[in-house]
Amino acid sequence: MTVRLDKLQAALEAALGNRIKTLRRERGEITITVAAADYLGVARTLHDDETLKFEQLIDLCGIDYSQWKDQPWDGPRFCVVSHLLSVGLNWRVRLKVFAPDDDVPVVASLTELWSSANWFEREAFDMIGVVFDGHVDLRRILTDYGFIGHPLRKDFPVSGHVEMRYDAEKKRVIYQPVTIEPREITPRIIREDNYGGLH
User: Fold this and answer.
1) Parallel, antiparallel, or unpaired: how do β-strands 78-86 and 91-98 relate?
2) Is 151 exposed, middle or buried (0-12, 13-18, 19+ CB in 10 A)?
3) Would the pLDDT of 152 be above 70?
4) Where are the domains of the chain?
5) Tens digits of per-residue pLDDT, 108-141?
6) Which of 18, 40, 134, 156 could be disulfide-bonded to 109 (CB atoms 3.0-4.6 Å)?
7) Cβ 157 vs Cβ 163: under 8 Å
């Protein structure tokens, strides 16, 4: 495993050079972070370079780093993380990019390189609010088209703002303010003397 990671790290450093802001090796994987301005170019190199050949994007998600690990975060708030796979060379890399503007987080779309990025980017836009520049069909995918906000942002209220329901009198779907009363539920704990065969 270490030899393979050494070889991958050398190939990444040779192909990407100073476009790599950070390179971390943890849990048998390599994570590289790049600047937003270099993101699409780096992704293209990872895809096209013969020494790397990352022909598959297997996952992409958005992360809200505010209050990261329940502590204040000193850095850009929104990050996009992609997991790439080279089937031919049998290795993986995690690619991270931070959106430079917290108010309007924008990074380049990877759909021109990997078609699988399409729905992943739509989900990250819908849930976190990252805008993918160059995406041809960037619209909500999990929430309703009229939904306001992005539910996986850490400042999004747990109960939301509005709820949607079918109104039988109007014979259509309507939006109304949330009617659920916020409450805290404490789970009931059952302790048995002989649970799991222990005495």
Assistant:
1) antiparallel
2) middle
3) yes
4) 2-144
5) 999 999 999 999 999 999 999 999 999 999 999 9
6) 134
7) no
Residue 9: which residues within 8 A CB-CB, separation 6 or more? 23, 25, 30
Q: pTM score, two decimals?
A: 0.80
- For residues 102, 103, 104, 109, the Cα torsion angle rounded to the nearest 10 degrees is 20
**Two structure tokens written together for 65:** 């780093």
Instruction: Describe the crossing of helices 2-16 and 39-48 by its angle, rounded to 10 degrees.
Output: 120
Q: What is the pLDDT of residues 48-100, one digit of tens each?
A: 999 999 999 999 999 999 887 777 778 899 999 999 999 999 999 999 999 99
Residue with tokens 């039988």: 168
Locate the DSSP E strands across the chain. Answer: 20-26, 29-34, 56-64, 78-86, 91-98, 106-108, 131-133, 162-167, 172-177
Q: Are 59 and 120 contacting, i.e. CB atoms less than 8 angstroms apart?
A: yes
